[in-house]
Amino acid sequence: MLAVAPPPPAERQQLIAQARSALLSQRPLPAALVEPWIVRSWQRCLAHGHRPAQPVAFNTVSAATVQRTADQHATLLRAARPVLAQLSRAIAGMHYFALLTDARGVVIEVQGPVDRRDPRARAIGRVGIDLSEAAVGTTAIGAALAELQPVWLHRGEHFFDANSGYSCAGAPLFDPQGQCVGMLDLTGVDVPERPELRHLVARSARAMEDALLQQRPHALLLRINWPGSTLGGEGDGLVALDADGTLVGTNSMARQLVPQPLRRPGMPVHCSDLLALPWPLLFDAAQRQPAAPLDLPLWSGLRLQGMALRSHAARGPARPTHAAPAAPVASGTAPLRAAETALIRQAVQDARGNVAEAARALGISRATVYRKLGPSKQRSAAELEPKVAPALYK
């Protein structure tokens, strides 16, 4: 199927004008004129009592506001600034500049060639200025925060007439728990349309999210992707774990590859809730040099590939490997437990490391298999049968 070529710039502006006229006069709006999310934003602006011809006020920002904004978002800024520096170099010749906002749409960082002689660029290129939809109508900033997806907005697609000189691309930013914490915006004034910037801004936002995750204290970083993909690139899902296998956080790609179970806010998630294998094997794999790809079975039956990397900042000694001496069992029921564990280990070995298949053969749940095989805080990884591990590696 051939792609439909976009209309010429002059014709596109006419189509946008027709869409605005139809909306304001409450006539049916042809779906092909503008994207649905733009229409939704226009409708929200109208519902707030705004009209396109009214002036837009860009409030003055005090020095105290600038400092308070920087202090409140120090963690996000530390993760974002190296990416913003690279982004500024990429757009240096295009007369666009970058804005980083918080989740409310307040600017917390500006980088790039802002033309201070142009009052339109000067008005928005300031830390502390409120560029939310409620304050300045339809923009890439407000739309990205409302729609939680990358957007492109050109000239007359802005709600207020006073903003029709801007062109902007925006993408939301998510923290390691999947909450929106802000957005990244690329804006130009009286510039040619560049819809490809939507891809650039989304890619840069993902890089910021990865940096935000990796600066959190963690013991192990697991890179994951579909089998056949090359691990180590920007398209990897990232899963950060603490020393007990509990999730510290994930990036957006990891949340797509491995949906997390429903839970109450603040409840921790263990990697065994996501991966159908004894989790200490991940720490064992992180000790191998060079790092080797892992076969990662999911509870759904799907399989991913992964690479486990131990954090250089992790404190304390590495977790014991399978070669370490087994921890003694003090319970009087040790013989019974040992027989039960041996039976489960044999079933996993017979299933070539497929925990779900072993659970079906035994007539128990996968969670029970993990609980019996996976070491708790009192049981070391050395208790696992060494023969089980190779089946989980490529």
UniProtKB/TrEMBL annotation:
Keywords for this protein: Kinase, Transferase
Pfam families associated with the record: HTH_8
Example of a GO MF term: kinase activity
Annotated protein name in UniProt: Histidine kinase
Gene3D superfamilies: 3.30.450.40, Homeodomain-like
UniProt keyword Cytoplasm present: no
Superkingdom in the source lineage: Bacteria
Start and end residues of each DNA binding HTH domain: 336-373
